[in-house]
Design brief:
The chain has 448 residues and is of the alpha/beta class. It has helices spanning 19-37, 39-48, 51-72, 77-83, 86-109, 135-148, 159-176, 192-205, 233-252, 271-274, 281-287, 297-301, 312-332, 358-361, 368-371, 373-380, 383-386, 412-415, 424-444; strands spanning 126-130, 151-156, 181-186, 210-213, 221-224, 257-262, 308-310, 337-342, 397-399, 405-406. Strands 3-2-1-4-6-8-9-10 form an eight-stranded mixed sheet, with helices on both faces. Helix 6 (135-148) links the parallel strand 1 (126-130) and strand 2. The longest helix has 24 residues, at 86-109. It is globular and about 70 Å long.
């Protein structure tokens, strides 16, 4: 008597471990991770490139579809044996080709090129970079000094780490025969007295051409308010500390270029709300911690003084504040230029789970060299080249992950937030209010 099936020979029982299904599920998981972490590059690609957009979407989404089909597998043991894992192998090959093609397109073909690099020709600009001892700040400082002969001032909270970073860059500068320099200087961006001292040291050194407001962190959920100022710590450091530094430097060089390291995070203040039907809007607001627009009158009146930080929510709000500061600065300081840079996800150690760069190895994030290119363009490109594609608005602007100038609130989801009472015009008004509130807070703490 046959135990399995009705044929002449007994059929082996199905294996409890289906290797093909596991592989297919891993492919689908990787594809979802790729879509999530690469969204800052994929969205501008899809919005702008017509046929290339469709081809890229087919690459990535087609791979997900193939993986899903393979994960479902044949419906019977006999058909499973006949399939012989062929669909999984096909899914793997298509997916591998898709990822390689997309990474090449996103990291090497789409980004606008940097100016020619020859740091041996002569002295480059004087550039101040905060948060310069690691990650994006260090890589930008290194390439500015070594490749472009810039006089780079590394602003860091840790004196030892700053000294080590500057020493490492100086060794590369000497090896390359570049005219660049790397000078370490201590600054704690969350301590406004430290910011004032840093600005005074810069004044004694001479004119600063470019300020790169890069220092930042993701606050822990439940982190207490700043003990001296009674403010949300991310707002006090990532926004107000950099706001104060920019104000001090622009007074000494009215033509200062201010570059703020930003991300796609500010879109999280519109995207979840833009397309929700009216009847679902309360449900969306229940699950999304930030309010539509993030920066509103309630935020300025109470949230900046909340008892504890709210983790990622506070980080997103601080990034929106950075973008609004950039939009407003040239309106107040007519000769200055201000640029926010959307770096997307870059493989650094800003969060504990990113240490060791597992996401870079998986292709989910750009490595730090590729990820720094938009920031370097914002620092180095001439004004006309940098503004290519941007309208005639007098305010500051955003440089996307490909180094192209865009209006930060000109994306479809910002146009479709009237259900939330927010939108581009409202965010422009909030930029004015944020500036006024920032000045008042600093004056109240003795920084006029």
């Amino acid at each position: 008597m046959c135990r399995y099936g009705t044929g002449g020979a007994a059929r082996s029982p199905p294996s409890p471990f289906d290797f093909d299904r596991v592989v297919a599920l891993l492919l689908a998981f990787h594809a979802l991770g790729f879509l999530f972490f690469r969204i800052g590059e994929l969205v501008p690609l899809f919005l702008r490139l017509g046929p290339v957009r469709c081809a890229s979407a087919s690459f990535c989404l087609g791979a997900v579809a193939l993986g899903t089909v393979a994960a479902r597998g044949p419906s019977s043991p006999g058909r499973r044996e006949k399939a012989g894992g062929g669909r999984v192998r096909a899914a793997f090959h298509v997916y591998f080709a898709s990822v390689v093609a997309l990474i090449y397109l996103l990291d090497h073909r789409m980004p606008r090129p940097l100016p020619p690099a020859d740091g041996r020709v002569g002295k480059g600009p004087t550039v101040v970079v905060t948060g310069a001892n690691a990650g994006v700040g260090y890589e930008a400082s290194r390439r500015l000094a070594v490749d472009y002969g810039a006089d780079v001032i590394l602003g860091c909270r840790s004196t030892k780490r700053c000294d080590d970073a500057a020493r490492s860059i100086e060794e590369e500068v000497a090896e390359a025969g570049s005219a660049g320099t790397a000078t370490p200087m201590r600054i704690d961006i969350s301590d406004w007295t430290s910011v004032e001292d840093f600005a005074e040291q810069l004044r004694r050194r001479g004119k600063v051409d470019v300020l790169v407001n890069n220092a930042g962190y993701v606050p822990r959920s439940g982190e207490p308010v700043h003990p001296e100022y009674g403010l949300d710590p991310s707002f006090a450091s990532m926004h107000l500390g950099h706001f104060l530094l920019a104000e001090r430097l622009v007074k000494r060089n009215p033509a200062l270029r201010v570059v703020a390291t930003s991300s796609s995070a500010h879109h999280l203040c519109a995207l979840p709300f833009a397309y929700a039907p009216n009847f679902l809007f309360p449900v969306v607001k229940f699950f999304i911690p930030q309010r539509p627009g993030c920066i509103d009158e309630e935020y300025l009146a109470s949230d900046v003084r909340r008892d504890i930080a709210s983790g990622v929510k506070a980080y997103v709000e601080a990034k929106v504040a950075n973008v609004l500061h950039v939009r407003e600065l040239p309106r107040r300081r007519r000769r200055a230029t201000a640029i926010a840079v959307d770096l997307g996800w870059v493989g650094t150690s800003i969060q504990w789970w990113m240490r060791g760069q597992p996401s870079v190895k998986l292709g989910w994030m750009r490595n730090v060299r590729a990820g720094t290119v938009p920031l370097l363009r914002a620092v180095l490109a001439d004004d006309e080249d940098l503004r290519t594609g941007k309208g005639g608005d007098e305010g500051g602007f955003l440089v996307d992950t490909f180094g192209r100038a865009v209006e930060p609130f000109d994306f479809p989801w910002w146009k479709n937030v009237p259900v939330a009472g927010e939108g581009r015009e409202q965010m422009a008004r909030m930029g004015e209010r944020l500036w006024e509130e920032s000045v008042q807070i600093l004056r109240a703490n003795g920084h006029r």
